Amino acid sequence: MSLQGFRVPKEIIFGEGALSHLSTLEGKRATLVTGGNSMKRFGFLDEAKKQLEKAGMEVSIVDGVEPNPSIETVIRGGREMAEFNPDWIIAIGGGSALDAAKVMWVYYEYPATKFEDLVAFKFPKLRTKAKFIAVPSTSGTASEITAFTVITDPENHIKYPLVSAEITPDIALLDPALPAKMPAHITANTGMDVMTHAVEAYVSTAATSYTDPLAMEAIKLVYKQLPVAYVDGDNMKAREDMHNASALAGMAFTNASLGLVHSLAHKIGGEFGITHGLANSILLPYIIEYNMKATDKFKEIEKQLEIKDLVEELKTLNKKVGIPVTLKEVTEVDMSEEKFKEVLDRMSKNAFEDPCTLTNPRVSSIEDVKAIYESAYYGRTAKNI
Questions:
Q1: 60, 86, 128, 133: most buried, per Cβ within 10 A?
Q2: Cα gap 201→356, rounded to integer Å
Q3: Which residues of 105-124 are buried (b: 16+ CB within 10 A; e: fewer)?
């Protein structure tokens, strides 16, 4: 039997006001990494800067991280950090900002790093110059907890999931005041991303007695509280439960890995730019149908949730939070049937080769992946694949 491990951030600070923990840090300089304007617009970027200055630190800001952070962006960020020489890197914002900051950290400490090495999971030893804090503004990606990041190669239309224990944050700050500002559709997409993380971690071939309880608790919290947070964004109990569910699911999947839902979502995201959580939420019921032949653990989820049909319940949950049941119905990007068919073979091959495929409970093939994509696009059952 091979040895397994369990790793999460050394410190997790959670609850309203968690952002104030930044004022307790020791150091001379800190760099804040963020995405668009929301953290600035809602005052959280200024608040983070103020708390760091309270700690006596000089602060720089690396902003403009795009929704699907590119190789160019992370190299640029590393270069900007090298000019400032921070002791702390604090990523604040959605999953994209957190993901990008992790790889900026690599390029800050090792400017000559080859991206191909990171794709091959060859990461250098970090913390030679700085430590890393993650402050998520969405309850979804759990990047604040994990050893995972996803970086996009826009030229080849491929999203690369990169994995290394080195990029697990030192501290995660979970302040529900940040996700409380999310609009309803982002609450929905990120919330179903949490559900996907939890379900895939629970049925992963690398799941353990350490990860299963965390995954199950996250499943229960999302099932109960996502519809509440979607309808009433100011319900802080629902927001806090969803934020904690995201972290719990992250603890599970960073140690148990994921499965085909993420493999397929990564690649359709690379081809069309569809939001990651939205892709996950649509694909999840179809891949559960496909995987049911290989594991009885879906029955345990049904038992714990006191439901009869997990697939139908997830489709109903999607509808409750405004998510379509098929890929064909997606309107945020142009995913016409013609374009879908045009990239289907390439996308299926790339998805099958995604590292998340390795821990899927059912052994698959390129042909199976293609059939699943078609099922999710047209709304056909995947039970017969």
A1: 133
A2: 11
A3: bbbbbbeebebeebbeeebe
- The Cα-based distances of 261 to 25, 153, 198, 353 in angstroms read 38, 20, 12, 13
For 40, the token pair is 């600035």
Residue 157 has pLDDT above 80, yes or no: no
Cβ neighbours of 289 (radius 10 Å): 20
How far is C-alpha 173 from the geometric centre of its chain's CA atoms? 16
Domain 11-179 and domain 184-378, same fold? Reply is: no
Determine the topology of domain 184-378 in CATH.
Dehydroquinate synthase-like, alpha domain (1.20.1090)
Q: Where are the domains of the chain?
A: 11-179, 184-378
Sheet with strand 11-14: strands edge to edge: 11-14, 171-174, 131-136, 88-93, 29-33, 58-62
Q: Give the span between the Cα atoms of 383 and 362, in whole angstroms.
A: 13
Closest CA to 182 of 223, 225, 248, 232: 232
What is the DSSP track for 130-153?
-EEEEEESSSS--TTT-SEEEEEE
For residue 351 the two structure tokens come to: 């998805």
Query: What mean pLDDT is reported for the chain?
Result: 95
Find where tokens 């030893």 sit: 125
Instruction: Give residue 125's identity as a one-letter amino acid code.
Output: K
Cβ-contact 144, 94 below 8 angstroms: no
Architecture of domain 11-179: 3-Layer(aba) Sandwich (3.40)
Amino acid at the residue 24: T
And the tokens for 364?
Answer: 């698959």
The whole-model pTM stands at 0.89
Q: Which residues pair with 160 in a beta bridge?
A: 151
For the record, the structure tokens of 170 come out as 């030192």
Query: What pLDDT sits at residue 141?
Result: 85
**Which has the closest alpha carbon to 47: 144, 186, 178, 169?**
178
Model confidence at 1, in pLDDT bands (50, 70, 90)?
Answer: low
Q: What pLDDT is stored for residue 148 in this prediction?
A: 87
Taking alpha carbons only, the member of 371, 378, 385 closest to residue 335 is 378
37-49 tens-digit pLDDT: 889 999 999 999 9
Q: In sequence order, what are the residues at sequence separation of 6 or more whose Cβ sits closer than 8 angstroms to the Cβ of residue 373?
A: 264, 268, 327, 344, 347, 348, 351
Helix (H) or strand (E) holding 13: strand 11-14
Q: Distance (Å, rounded) from C-alpha 43 to C-alpha 328?
A: 38
